[in-house]
């Protein structure tokens, strides 16, 4: 379905701003929190005692954020409606002793984060972002958003077979970015980061740094019906979920407590204190019940009535590789959000979930599509099945169809982010 300019581009313009301003999960959390604050949400600390007040609240922990809105009239047993997503994307991350080099080049030692499509990081102008931890335990965001590093590809003259035999990259030897000339000096990168952020280098006690493409997101295509940009897996869903949560708070008589849960570490299996496999979401929901005077029984009742729509990117049909896709299920850009099905529970969707998602799309007036893998192709997974199993919460896997998933620059339909947000809003409103 082609639908160029069918919708106001305001949502997608705003997504482009969010993507560009969120090179790391820590930035994604800060930018989400800022949007929530503007909408009247208030941060609560995990270390404080929580109270029974109504309204919008959120908790942040590293690269994760959980936000919820307690409407007037909510009871301790009121069920939740959760939009799940993740803040992290595959990339290159700075090693503990970063200063390295070879043959007169200064380089930065990196680890590979998640299922990185390595070739897409070659010959790009890369910036540096993340956070530093100061001696007092506080954090500062870092964003050097200009061409600073590059992983240069070997010239074709020195790799004559590359186009016939395919590009072969050694993960340890070939992915080390250059960032200047001269001899590597110990402490150089962190001194540079200190200067860039206006902190004394001696105050920096730890860091979580990564590289990002500095190229801005852009509309693409004959009618600009596509969107090219970094980290759409899965900041597209974080952004849509934030917009949906804020929109849902305007609705009168909410029968559910709407929640946004954006986790870190999805790209490497979600096993961390800020990942979906950890207790963060369960703790927040449980504490929210208890803070409103609820008992264990209330919590069990609330969880039993709770539904999670877990939103993440999926594969649009690739015109040059149609044989890799399921021939009867071809999601296309701008065809609306996708319902992701895998009977082996790589996705948590079942028939009941399909009904919930279809009802939300119908209420929002949004078209939607099915995704299922070709039986000969292994299926990816996401936080949906983890949320379902960890918390015993009914979960439906959905998302947006993209090309070039896990590339440093992905591609999706320019209308789909808006369509997803509209469906998520209808879901949260019940
Ligand atoms: Zn993802």
TrEMBL record:
EC assignment: 3.4.11.-
SUPFAM superfamilies: Aminopeptidase/glucanase lid domain (SSF101821), Zn-dependent exopeptidases (SSF53187)
GO CC annotation: cytoplasm
Residues reported to bind Zn(2+): 86, 157, 406
GO terms, biological process: proteolysis
Cofactor list: Zn(2+)
GO molecular function, one term: zinc ion binding
CDD domains reported in the protein's UniProt record: M18_DAP
UniProt cross-references to Gene3D superfamilies, sorted A to Z: Aminopeptidase i, Domain 2, Zn peptidases
Top-level EC class: hydrolase
Pfam families (alphabetical): Peptidase_M18 (PF02127)
Keywords linked to the UniProt accession: Aminopeptidase, Hydrolase, Metal-binding, Metalloprotease, Protease, Zinc
Cross-referenced InterPro entries: M18_aminopeptidase_2, Peptidase_M18, Peptidase_M18_dom2
Family matches, as NCBIfam families: PRK02813.1
Entry's family note: Belongs to the peptidase M18 family.
Name of the protein in question: Probable M18 family aminopeptidase 2
Lineage: Bacteria, Bacillati, Actinomycetota, Actinomycetes, Streptosporangiales
């Amino acid at each position: 379905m082609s639908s160029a300019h069918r919708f106001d581009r305001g949502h997608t313009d705003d997504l482009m701003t969010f993507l560009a301003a969120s090179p790391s999960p820590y930035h994604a959390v800060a930018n989400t929190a800022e949007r929530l604050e503007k909408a009247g949400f208030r941060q609560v600390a995990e270390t404080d005692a929580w109270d029974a007040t109504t309204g919008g609240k959120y908790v942040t922990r590293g690269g994760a954020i959980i936000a919820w809105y307690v409407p007037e009239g909510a009871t301790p047993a009121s069920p939740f409606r959760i939009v799940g997503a993740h803040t992290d994307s595959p990339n290159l991350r700075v090693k503990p002793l970063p200063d390295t080099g070879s043959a007169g080049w200064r380089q930065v030692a990196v680890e590979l984060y998640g299922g990185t499509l390595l070739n897409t990081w070659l010959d790009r102008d890369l910036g540096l972002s993340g956070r530093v931890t100061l001696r007092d335990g506080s954090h500062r965001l870092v964003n050097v958003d200009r061409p600073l590093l590059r992983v240069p590809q070997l010239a074709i003259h020195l790799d004559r077979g590359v186009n016939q035999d395919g590009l072969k990259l050694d993960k340890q030897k070939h992915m080390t970015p250059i960032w200047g000339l001269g001899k590597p000096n110990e402490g150089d990168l962190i001194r540079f980061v200190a200067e860039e952020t206006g902190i004394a280098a001696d105050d920096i006690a730890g860091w979580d740094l990564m590289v990002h493409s500095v190229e801005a997101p852009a509309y693409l295509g004959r009618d600009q019906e596509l969107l090219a940009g970094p980290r759409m897996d899965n900041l597209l869903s974080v952004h849509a979920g934030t917009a949906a949560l804020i929109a849902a708070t305007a609705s009168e008589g909410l029968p559910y407590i709407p929640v946004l849960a954006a986790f870190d570490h999805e790209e490497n299996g979600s096993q961390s204190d800020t990942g979906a496999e950890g207790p963060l979401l369960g703790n927040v929901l449980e504490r929210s019940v208890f803070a409103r005077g609820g008992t264990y029984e209330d919590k069990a009742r609330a969880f039993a009535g709770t539904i999670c729509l877990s939103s993440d990117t999926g594969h649009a049909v690739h015109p040059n590789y149609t044989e890799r896709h399921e021939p009867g299920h071809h999601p296309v850009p701008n065809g609306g959000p996708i319902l992701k099905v895998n009977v082996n529970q790589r996705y948590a969707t079942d028939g009941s979930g399909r009904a919930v998602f279809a009802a939300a799309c119908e209420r929002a007036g949004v078209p939607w599509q099915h995704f299922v893998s070709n039986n000969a192709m292994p299926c990816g997974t996401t936080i949906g099945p983890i949320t379902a199993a960890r918390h015993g919460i009914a979960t439906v896997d959905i998302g947006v169809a993209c090309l070039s998933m896990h590339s440093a620059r992905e591609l999706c339909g320019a209308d789909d982010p808006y369509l997803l947000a509209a469906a998520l809003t209808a879901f949260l409103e019940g």
